[in-house]
């Protein structure tokens, strides 16, 4: 039925055109933003998941920074310990050379003293971001150091941090705090005296003794920073070389521990980077727009819009056709 009061054809064409325009607006928004789900109104579930995962991924980025900082600290400590090993190895060689008859021990001791000063310099210089893992004092005590390793979220939404731990008492080269005894370069050396006893027993004043009953002091108590060849007999020289070698082995073990920590940090950093990339890909699959699909849809909608305009024009001309019947 044709009516001059209600143009149903025009109303239908207008509704179709309005729907096409809305779809075009949505498609254009997706193309301009690159997101299929750009707000909660588009898809509340996907938007919520994507927002949470973006936040977690940002936290993982911070974890990567923390791992980089931890790697730098461990690397500086390893470099210092490795350099110190070379110095101690040189000290050991000087003692071996001083064991030969006729060697001027005073000159050898001067060289040893310079090497000992170099140990102190290495230890003091091995600082990164205000932390020193090989030199300690009252303000920088040796102990467990924590490095943030990962950010975790369980099935209930609870978050936690995973940390890597390293005990810097294992890497302590020098402790400048008189109240502390840790540090490879400051611990007392076990050196055999004339009687062959190890001087690692009872401490009286500034001297060690080997007989607790008589408490007879033995005139030797040295550390790696204070030991010298002058005044040592042949047995004490042999004991000093052996004692320095023991310290050298401890330092080698410490360097190995630092190297293992650095390797672990590197593996964890690579894993966090891969995990971050995977999360980013997952977010993209949820909310990113397929640009090929959207551009094809836009062209189709533009064609539909043109047809809709023509259909509306035809529907609006129906009333004019009725008027012509009365002419």
UniProtKB/TrEMBL annotation:
MF terms (GO), sorted A to Z: structural molecule activity
Keyword Mitochondrion: no
Claim: rRNA-binding is one of the keywords in the record: no
Locations listed in the record: Secreted; Bacterial flagellum
Domain Flagellin C-terminal: 242-326
Any one Gene Ontology cellular component term annotated for this protein: extracellular region
Domain Flagellin N-terminal: 4-135
Superkingdom of source: Bacteria
Name of the protein: Flagellin
Family, per entry: Belongs to the bacterial flagellin family.
Keywords, sorted A to Z: Bacterial flagellum, Cell projection, Cilium, Flagellum, Secreted
UniProt cross-references to PANTHER family, sorted A to Z: FLAGELLIN
Role: Flagellin is the subunit protein which polymerizes to form the filaments of bacterial flagella.
Pfam families given in the database record: Flagellin_C, Flagellin_N
